[in-house]
Every structure is written in C-alpha cells, then in structure tokens.
Amino acid sequence: MMSSTALAFIIAALSYVFFFSSSPKHHYHELFISASFSDNASVALNLRTLTRRPHVAGTAANAEAAEYVRSVFTSSSLKSHVVAYQVSLTYPVHRSLVLTPTESANPITLELEQERVGDSPYADEVMPTFHGYAKSGNVSGPVVYANYGRVEDFVRLKKEMGVNVSGAVVVARYGQIYRGDIVQNAYEAGAVGVVIYTDKRDYGGDEWFPESRRMPPSGVQVGTVYNGLGDPTTPGWASVEGCERLSNEAVELSGDAPLIPSLPVSAADAEVILKTVVGDVADGDVYPVGPGPGILNLSYTGETVIAKIENVIGVIQGEEEPDRYVILGNHRDAWTYGAVDPNSGTAVILEIAQRLDKLQKRGWKPRRTIILCNWDAEEYALTGSTEWVEENREMLSSRAVAYMNVDCAVSGPGFDASATPQLDELIKLAAQEVQDPDNATQTIYDSWIGSRNSVEIGRLGGTGSDYASFVQHVGVSAVDMRFGGGYPVYHSIYDDFTWMEKFGDPMFHRHVAMASVFGLVALRLADEEVLPFNYITYASELKKSAEDLEKLGHSIDVSPLIKSIEDLSTAAQGINKEKEGIKGALKVREINDRLMMAERAMTDRDGLSERPWYKHLVYGPSKYDDYGSKSFPGVDDAIENAKKLDTKASWENVQHHIWRVSRAIRQASLVLKGQLR
Ligand SMILES: *[C@@H]1O[C@H](CO)[C@@H](O)[C@H](O)[C@H]1NC(C)=O
Ligand SMILES: *[C@@H]1O[C@H](CO)[C@@H](O)[C@H](O)[C@H]1NC(C)=O
Ligand SMILES: *[C@@H]1O[C@H](CO)[C@@H](O)[C@H](O)[C@H]1NC(C)=O
Ligand SMILES: *[C@@H]1O[C@H](CO)[C@@H](O)[C@H](O)[C@H]1NC(C)=O
Ligand SMILES: *[C@@H]1O[C@H](CO)[C@@H](O)[C@H](O)[C@H]1NC(C)=O
Fold it and tell me: Which residues belong to any copy of the Peptidase M28 domain (predicted)?
C-alpha cells in the first residue's frame, strides 16, 4: 500500500503537470521561446545603437537613447509613454590628485585618464572619472592603505597594526563592498579623503582589453558614493515638477551623503601612490599600510544640478485582469557606453517587446497587464525606479503581482538568479525549458545546477539594482537574472560594444537565451490562472536564516521566530492544497490576492530603525554594506550594535527585533490563510 504522503505527492505532481500544460496560453509560451521567435541579429543591432555614445543620466545622449527605446516599444505595438522627473544629479567640474612622495621629492600629478581603445567618434563625450554625489573639497594627508575598506579592514589597521587613520587620505581597493560604504567607513575612521582603485589582483591580468576581457592598467571604475535611494532632495516622495525639496544643507545632514571627498583611480595611478608608502604589511596582503611618507593632495569639485530624467514605460493591457501588473524593468543610463551595464539588459527587454509583438499578431493576449519599464539614473541612486515607485506606491501596493529586473544581463557564460523565495520554483521550471546558449546538449537549468544537488538562488536584500524599491519599500515579490556575473571592465570606458562582441557574448546567443528565460517567467506570471507562487520555499529560506541566529547566546530566544516560520509553512501548504481544483473567477481572484499580498505583509509601516524608508523586515541592506544581501536587516543591525556596546539593553534590543520579524511573518501567514482572528 502506498503511504498517504506518497499519494499526496503524486496527486500534487499530477495537478502540477495539469496546472501548467492545461493553460490555454501554453502553446504561445512555447512559441515565445522557439528558435523562430529568437533574433540575435536584432539584439546585436539594438545593443550597438544603444551603446554608440556614452549616455550618463541627464545628458542629451541619454535622451536620444530614451527616444530609441520608445520607438522600439511603439513599433512593437506597446502603448508607450515617458514619465519624467526633475532630480538632483552631480557632474565633475574639477579634479586633481597630487602626490608628494617624500618631503624632499618633487610632487607628481597623477593622470586620472583612461587610455582610449578603438576609434569611437564620441570618445570626447566620456565624462572625466569621478564619484557620483562625491563631496567637493581640497584635502591633503599621508596615505594609509586600507585594503578593501571594510569595517574589519579599519579595525585591523587600528587594533592590530596600530595605524592612525585620523587625518590620512585612505587608499582602498574596489571589490568587496559598496563604494559608498568604503567612503563612509574611512570617514568614521577619521580619514580626510578617499581614493578607490582597481587592483590588478581583482580585475587585471597580464593581458587586457582589447586583447583580453581584463581591465587595462589605466582603467577606472566610476560610480556613485551616495548611500541612500532615489533623489537625495526628495526622500520618500516623487521628484515631480514643483515638488517639495530639501536644501543642500539638509541633504548633507541626512546621513546618506558622503562627508569627505573621494576619487576613483586606475591600477596604474594607484601603483605610483602605493610605492610611496612604507610600514607593516597586513597578513596576506602585498602593500605596506603607512601612514605615508607619501602625501596626497586630493581636489574635487562637482556641480549639483536639477536635471530631467526619463523613464520610458510600455504597456500591454491584460485581457481578464487589467488591474494586475507584471512589471519588467531595466535601466538605460550608463557611466560610459554601457554595453554590459545596463544595455545588455535593455537589449533583452527590447527583444522581449519584439517577441510579444509577434505573439500578439498570432492572437495572444495576456491575462494580466504587462508593463515594460526602462529606468533612468539608476547609476546615481536607483533614481528613476525609486521616484516612480514612490509616486505610485499605493497603486503598486494594491496591484503589482511581481517585479522582474534585469540589469547587467550578459557579461559571459553562466546563468544566475536572485528572487524573493516564493518565485524560486517558477524560475527553476523556466530554466528547465530553455536551452543553455553555451551547451547545445542541455538546458540552462542543467548547467546552472552542474554537479550540485540544487541550484542556489540569491536574495534581494542589497541595493545593487532597480528591484530595491519594489521589494524593500513596497514589498513586491521580485526576480533579478543574469548571465556571467561580475566582470573586470565594470563602469569603465571599456564596457563597450567591442568588449561585448569579443568577450561578453560573441554571437549574442546569451542575450537571446536571457530574453527566453526572463520572458517565460513573465508570461507565466501574466497568464497562469492561479499565480505560480510557492511559499513553502519562503518558509524554508526563513528557517535557515533563523537557525543562524540560534548560535548568538546572550540569552537571545529565537523560538518566537521559529514558531512564526512554522505557521507560515503550514499556511503555505494549506494554500497550495486549496489551489488544486479551484473553480470560479472570484475564488481564483481571491486566492491570487492572498498569494500577491503575503509578500506585502513582510513589510512594516515604521520600517527599519533609523532607516524608516526600508519597510521590508526580511530583505534589506546591511548598514555597513549596501550590497550585503542579508535577511532580517533590523536584527543584523541590532546585533552589530550589541557587539559594539555589549550592554544588557543592546542585547534586549536584538530580542525586540526578533519579535518584530516574527510578527511580520505571522501577518503573512494570516494573509495566506485568508483568515481573520
Ligand atoms: C579647491 O581647489 C580648486 C583649485 O585650486 C578651487 O577651484 C576650488 O574652489 C577649491 N575648492 C574648495 C572647496 O575649496
Ligand atoms: C592621530 O592623528 C591625529 C592627526 O595627526 C592626531 O590628532 C591624533 O592625536 C592621533 N591619534 C592617536 C591615537 O595617535
Ligand atoms: C598640499 O596641501 C597642503 C595643505 O593645503 C599644502 O600645504 C601643500 O603645499 C599642498 N601640496 C601640493 C603639492 O600642492
Ligand atoms: C555540455 O553538457 C554535457 C552534458 O549534457 C557535458 O558532458 C559537456 O561537457 C558540456 N559541454 C560543455 C562545453 O560544457
Ligand atoms: C547569430 O547567430 C548565428 C549562428 O547561430 C551567427 O552565425 C551570427 O553571426 C549571429 N549574429 C550575430 C550578430 O552575432
């Protein structure tokens, strides 16, 4: 006799097969990913057009790119419009970095220039290398080398190596944490200025672009150093014409703006600087930490402008549920030519728009509304998406089914995804249906899983791209996907079409495969009668994070959290059972609303302590690294604080934050169950 669990499993599996294959729109989904619908030549053409000129937010070149995106949307039968905002951006006006190697030596003025490769007629439009929202000022001090500029690097300098960072100009390398946090950590250690460079150990090699994919010695990673999200002058509300704005002084006091000047430099410039530093070498490192005797004079002047930015929005109205939104987004603005970051993603979105047009011409109409968004000013502070989410907060809160983000869509082989966990299963299923662009004998999923037992899906607690406002401010479930991950010429002048054609995606098959897998997930979300969300995965993810807290000691009691997660698991099993054999439009709608709103329940109106804009209590950035994709950010912050203070009250505060998260998870269970107490 078969055990009841085995029987339940078979019934579940059968209903699952039925659930997908029975969808009346399923044959359209197969068509969408078919070879006849895929067009690598058109992807390449779109990418070439988008990356012709450097297109920083607020420039004429980026407005031209917006017009191009809009024209492709319109010719793909999307109803399109531009949503413009007036936002605060900064551009470089004056930069200099002068090194005095020793008291008696002559000062050396560093280059701060990237060597050109190729013959772009638009090379003069590349902005001088700088940090977005960097503080203007002229500072000087002895050089202290601080490795990756993490909290632990500064602790080691002070406690283990006895180095006084006060009054120094810190030189740190890119690669482990968000650059804005490097500046912040250096400031807290007492530094007067910061230079961040691209170390050959992390990004370079014996050969470099155009011979290899590695960063040339003169390459510089540009980027923002602002620690908040959205226009700094409109925290929490949209930057529409004539709106309320904070003064520059108020922005400085906000805690998110950098308080000391900084500049990004190349490996070549950094080498010159680091040769003038003596002292101890940290374990496992190669450069002495100083201070000095080399002295750096750093001068930076930026201008702050209120500039117009443009989000381009294209809509396909849903046939049965026009008021339920499946939102796909990617940013358009780039620090330079932006072939990987972000226009590989833009090319993918345009390919999806063109395939959806072909589907519509064959008679397909989505059940729910599909919205394609082309964001502006992501590079500054995820600004375009954040302003739009702030402006539409309540509409999104009541209607958004999911947000799907693609940014650096392709930089090489190897699929990877991050998501809120109720979408894990859907992503895996879609990856099982699309062929791996780098191996004709297997699917994306087969390559992704490799020889492991399961694939690892990342989470969305960081602020690395435009999903942040959707997840962390409103509580919309979300996905982010890419092929290739980190790449050495990131944010440099070398992130151009030639790099992509030679190294990132020589035949543009990875772009095509990304359009297939990303688009397929979107189609499932838009067309399946019952939303393909599974909260069992959410509960098991939370359980793993909760178990990590059990080792804390200090009489911290994790059991309220564990209990709330067990309830969530029960609620998830309950709703999965309810989904089987469900009938009636209103009943379907009611179940879908519960599936959609359970993510919202993970948010709290008051937000994280001292960072009230971040409403999600499970996914949010760590205070010490905005890229850090942690779960329970409020608990993490409280733990960091308690470790520092080690007082009874500070550990009680950790317990309080564990209770807060437990209560949010309990709200999610009630929503999933659809029951009032
Ligand atoms: C820094 O020095 C430059 C060049 O000498 C000068 O133009 C600028 O006004 C100075 N900035 C500040 C904030 O003092
Ligand atoms: C560190 O250096 C600063 C500036 O030179 C000085 O004012 C301070 O007293 C020094 N701190 C220690 C602990 O030596
Ligand atoms: C660097 O700045 C210091 C302090 O303002 C100044 O005394 C020194 O002359 C400057 N050095 C160079 C090479 O400009
Ligand atoms: C492609 O996948 C097959 C397994 O299906 C594997 O044996 C082969 O090594 C893979 N080829 C490459 C180039 O990775
Ligand atoms: C598209 O793929 C084909 C092979 O499938 C290749 O011959 C062609 O060069 C590719 N097009 C581009 C623009 O890379």
Answer: 311-498
Q: Tell me, letter by letter, the H, E, C secondary structure of 162-208.
A: CCCCCCCEEEEECCCCCHHHHHHHHHHCCCCEEEEECCHHHHCCCCC
Are 427 and 355 members of one domain? yes
Q: Is the CB of 507 under 6 A from ligand 5?
A: yes
Cα 53 to ligand 2 centroid, rounded to whole Å: 48
Note whether 341 and 302 are same-domain residues: no
Same domain, 298 and 159: yes
Single-letter amino acid, residue 65: A
Residue 398 sits in the same domain as residue 412: yes
CATH number of residue 409's parent domain:
3.40.630.10
Give the C-alpha separation, 274 to 600, whole Å: 49
Answer whether residue 500 is part of any domain. Answer: yes
Residue 13 included in any domain: no
Is the sign of the CA dihedral 211, 212, 218, 224 positive or negative? positive
With bands split at pLDDT 50, 70 and 90, how would you rate the model's confidence at 508?
Answer: very high
> Could you give the residue ranges of the DSSP H alpha helices within 531-647?
535-549, 559-579, 585-600, 633-645
Atom of ligand 4 nearest to the CA of 439: 1
Mean pLDDT across 387-394: 98
Residue-range definition of the domain harbouring residue 257: 92-306
Question: What gap in Å lies between CA 52 and CA 129, rounded to an integer?
Answer: 19
**133 lies in the same domain as 79:** no
Assess whether pLDDT exceeds 70 at residue 111.
yes
Helix residue spans in 228-342 (DSSP H): 248-253, 267-274
Task: Single out the catalytic residue among 310, 321, 351, 378.
Answer: 378
Does the pLDDT at position 22 exceed 80? Answer: no
Query: So what's the pLDDT on residue 362?
Result: 97
Minimum CA distance residue for ligand 5 atom 13: 41
The number of CA neighbours under 13 Å toward the Cβ of 406 is: 34
Q: Which atom of ligand 3 is nearest to the CA of 107?
A: 13
Shared domain check, 424 and 411 = yes
136 lines ligand 1 (CB under 6 A): yes
Which of 306, 327, 352 is the endpoint of a domain? 306
* Structural domains counted in the chain: 3
The pLDDT of residue 302 is: 98
Closest ligand to residue 140's CA: 3
Ligand 4: residue whose CA is nearest its atom 6: 441
| 40 touches ligand 5 (CB under 6 Å) | yes
**CB 645 less than 6 A from any atom of ligand 5:** no
Ligand 2 mean position, distance from CA 163 (Å): 10
- Catalytic residue status for 378: yes
> Looking at ligand 5, which residue's alpha carbon is closest to its atom 3?
507
User: Do residues 259 and 181 both lie within one domain?
Assistant: yes
**Is residue 3 domain-resident?**
no
Which of 241, 271, 306 is the C-terminal boundary of a domain?
Answer: 306
Of ligand 3's atoms, which has the minimum distance to the CA of residue 140? 2
* Residues 562-610: tens digit of each pLDDT: 999 999 999 999 999 999 989 999 999 999 999 999 999 999 999 999 8
Is the pLDDT at 2 greater than 90? The verdict is no
CB distance 164 to ligand 2 below 6 Å: yes
Q: How far is the CA of 103 from the centre of ligand 3 (A)?
A: 11
Residue whose CA lies nearest to ligand 2 atom number 12: 164
CA-proximal residue: ligand 2, atom 2 (nearest)? 166
55 and 141 share one domain: no
